[in-house]
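Reader question, answered in our methods column.
A reader sent in the components of a multi-part assembly and asked whether the whole thing could be modeled at once rather than chain by chain. We filled in our standard form and ran it. Here is what they sent:
COMPLEX SIZE: two components
ENTRIES:
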Amino acid sequence: MMDTFQLVARGLACRLGLDAADIKAEDELLTLGIDSLDAAELLMELEDKLGVEIEQTKKLKTVGDVVAAIDEASE
Amino acid sequence: MNRRVVITGMGAVTPVGIGVDAFWNSLLAGKNGIDRITLFDPCNLRSSLAGEVKDFDPEACQTAKDASHTDRSGQFAIAAAVEAVEQSGVVGTVDPWRAAVYFGSGVGGFETTEANCRKLIEKGARRVSPFFVPMMIANMPASMIAIRYDFRGQAIPAVTACTSGSHAIGEATRAIRHGYADVVVSGGCEAPIVEVGLAGFNAMKALATTDDPEEASLPFDKRRAGFVPAEGAGALVLEEYERAKARGAKIYGEIVGYGTTCDAYHITAPKPDGTGAGKAVALALEEAGWKPGERVYVNAHGTGTSLNDLAETLALKLAFGEKEANQLQISSTKSMTGHMLGAAGAVEAIVCAKALAENVMPPTINLLERDPECDLDYIPCVKREGTVDLAISNSFGFGGHNACVAIRRCE
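And here is the structure of the entire assembly that came back:
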């Protein structure tokens, strides 16, 4: 099964027209071209896919932050 | 300040062609853009026909990501604006603070609204998109055009139902004429072919309900029984005359008059005596310096509803006088495109500019049975060649909004 990072990277790559392999955990969302609306939409899609509810209490700055938020929600 | 305002770029996305050339050639050929609805299954509706834009590729003008976050109406707006602005060559020649956008839509993101309401009902509030609001609000096409070209002057939508496109052009003209901007991208867009939208129009009994595309949009015909909804966008780059001339821009026509009124009568029905609409036309004619005897082409609002076409005929007689009204050459291109609502006035202003440029007027197709009460010359069935001195575009909308835009060749 795909791990959370791969899922997020694939979702981002699809939006940005990039190769998922080029996306790293430390990449900042804004630098990649993902604004707060894009991030909210991506999380919504991942919630559907994973069947979890992600509480967006913390500011999500990097790809790694998104992965951590999902993992936290999945526990 | 009373500066001259000219057209230096035009763009169109319509059910009879994408791009001004394809659009215009289809109109002259009398091509009907109305067909069975494909954007959703209309089996639950009383009307099954619409003027849909065919073979539209939003990614021709936007990135895949941007297109996915733009309502269909906004995608049309961007495509029309890109055509008009690129044709004008204005980018880089104008101070961004002096460049504005006046762009209308009757409704805004109808498709986006319906899709998110479905999500809310079927999946709950947490599935309503973060892009729902920005994609739906009717000012967004104006904003997106401003962002694309870094035009930092006023960006203002006209949201006056089927008058939106004409209001945008008219108000943009005033902004340039009176010195508030030097360049304006103006026009309108609409994408109303969604189930809830057409169900609403059906409930009003505003739509034609036949299944035959050749007997659906019948402006000024005795058999007319409602309009046919359609989608698309039109954009015009308007520019102050002296600067357009100085930079050697190609000029496609001059906006010489604009009149607008409100019937102040009923939320949807036009005032039957045509006084509100007639006054708007008269105001535009006065600004345009119209004189009896001029050869005038009228691109009618001509929706094919019983009330509109009668009131519009009376309005033209009031504005021009009975004798001159009989000399008018009038057509409703909605017989071919269907009614593009907030985009109608914009694409129909383009028709006026093209008619002036080429001295040929598109027809009102399928006009076979004369209505004794609609007794003017509506150019039935086939285009007509002949010199045009002045062209006017009428638009009237729910709410009693009336607007008329008058155009001449720039001389």
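What stands out: Chain A touches chain B at residues 15-17, 33, 36-38, 40-41, 44, 47-48, 53 (CB under 8 Å). The radius of gyration of chain A is 11 Å.
Send us your own complexes using the same form.
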